[in-house]
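Before the break, one more example. Copy the sequence into your notebook; we will annotate it together after we see the structure.
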Amino acid sequence: MGFKIEKDVPVRRFTSPFCAALDQLEVGDSMPDLTKKEVYKYRVNFYTKHFKDRKFTFRKEEENSYRVWRLS
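Here is what the structure looks like once it is written out:
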């Protein structure tokens, strides 16, 4: 019985586009133009085991706009 072997197939780590973007943030980078609903929905991801060694913060910038920063 032979099994097919494929090399260099990327593993999908995140089911959420927000988490994929959060993973790509470098220290000092930010994501603008988020709604309050988006920020509060996804902020629980800041504390998951994948992001435990990174620190994030968010702040309201305008009437309906929030920004997320990576601090460390």
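The longest helix spans residues 17-24. The chain is about 20% helix and 25% strand. Try to locate both features in your own notes.
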